[in-house]
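Deliverable D4.2, example record:
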Amino acid sequence: MSNTLLDISAALPTGTERSLPQIEAELSYALAGRKVLIVVENLPIPFDRRVWQEARALRDAGAEVSIISPTGKGYEQREVVLEGIRIFRHPLPVEATGLKGFLLEYATALIHETWLAWKILFRHGFDTIHACNPPDLIFLVALPFKLIGKRFIFDHHDINPELFEAKFKKRGLLWRCLCLMEWLTFKTADVVISTNESYKAIARRRGGRNAEDVFVVRSGPDLSRVQPVAPDQSLVEGHRFLVGYVGVMGEQEGIDLLLSAVHHLVEVKGRFDIKFILVGGGPSLESLKELSRQMGLEEHVTFTGRAPDELLFRVLSSADVCVNPDRVNPMNDKSTMNKILEYMAFGKPIVQFDVTEGRRSAQDASLYARANDPIDFADKIEELLTDPERRATMGAIGRRRVEQELAWNFEVPKLIAAYRRAAERNGSKGDFSARS
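Output generated by the structure prediction step:
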């Protein structure tokens, strides 16, 4: 019996010893009769891969799942059913850049989310609201439903006080407001889902939650979807090596540090044989393209913008090294970056700055540069490019860790256990595993 299924067995109601087929069958109805409403504000569904994986896992466990999310490019349809999951989308103002913009965005989202939640309740029903931050305001949507007996699960994706401090280099009144909203969200929730151990510690320390009410469900890659393909030599455009990056193009992602590292490799070390492909969109994409042009890196750096999985998988399959230049700050130190796990799933060696959760995820699959030092970052990239045997060894270590510990299928039993705990806290332990 696999470790995954042993974990599944532990997450399900106790009873007599069961065979592998019996455990698999029990998982298929572990949440039978449950009706779940997931609320996510920062990305459209199914583009938010973590939330979509959670929704599909809940569906596979027998739950009826509805999701509220914003619209987005390619996701404009307001109501749609995908793979048996109902998705209700709402518009948002253009991406916020200042205080007034954020207030408008959050107020608009809360109005839409509240209206759609009541609409879904009367049309389809739900017994559990599963809220995914940011922001830490969705408890306001959940609160009236808690008063009428619905469960509330808080899925803690981002630590917003740390994000504010990293972005604005200060604390102050708005930072204290963020801390208050986070605390209220923790206190309102029946159960907290944390994406890693650092976030679990925050839920316990700042949120005052007991250990038994906090479940770590990591954002592991789905190996049925994330599959290497044949390397595409055309991507290197005549260069010898390819370095890949996948992620958001924003201020906190350290792309400017990566460009400085590229500049050092090209202009100082004369490494004209390296091509960098940066996959992803975000608010800083155009300014980063301009910075690359100003640094004279057009021949060595390609920005694809937001790309389909087909291109993403080709880039990762073709890369010799993958990089994560996220700045070392309290936000990034405690956060698990999905890109790290995806690099490992593709068997690629990694270069990143030395952050707690990055090291916890990658271990020996990565080299770790000095904090926010682009020169050392460049040196680490070159170190790997000149040692193919080491690249192969590190890539194999990463792939093995994903296959044996970090893939999404290892997280599903923990997600189910979180729902079981929420039902117990709500006084309905007996009906958790009831068949529909």
